[in-house]
Amino acid sequence: MMKISLRIEIFKEGDAYVALSPELNVSSFGDTIEDAKKSAKEAIEAFIDECERMGTLQEVLEESGFSQFDDTWESRKPVAEEKLAFAL
Fold it and tell me: Diameter of the chain by CA atoms?
């Protein structure tokens, strides 16, 4: 059984919560944080299933910065994270 380890970010937009997997660029939403997480999991699973069906999952994961370790695909991890602000 293959495992894929990735992160999701959750944002509040109006009355809804949006969950985003930045590595795969897959998002979904819900009325609560838990609903958004559940919806995102379903959307990510559907995306992965479709990639498997098309035979492109390994290519998609590699292009998205994932590395494979045994049966697990891990998303890349930043060595530093910083917020920048620009005045234009």
Answer: 49
Asked if 42 and 28 count as a contact pair (C-beta separation under 8 A), the reply is yes
- The answer on pLDDT for 5 being more than 90 is yes
Decide: 65 and 75 in contact? Cβ < 8 Å: yes
CATH of residue 65's domain is 3.30.160
Mean pLDDT for the chain overall: 95
pLDDT digits (tens, 9 = 90+) for 19-49: 999 999 999 999 999 999 999 999 999 999 9
Q: For residue 81, is it within any domain?
A: no
Domain that holds residue 16: 3-74
The domain total for the chain is: 1
CB 61 within 8 A of CB 3: no
| pTM listed for this prediction | 0.86
| Cβ atoms within 10 Å of 60's Cβ, excluding its own | 16
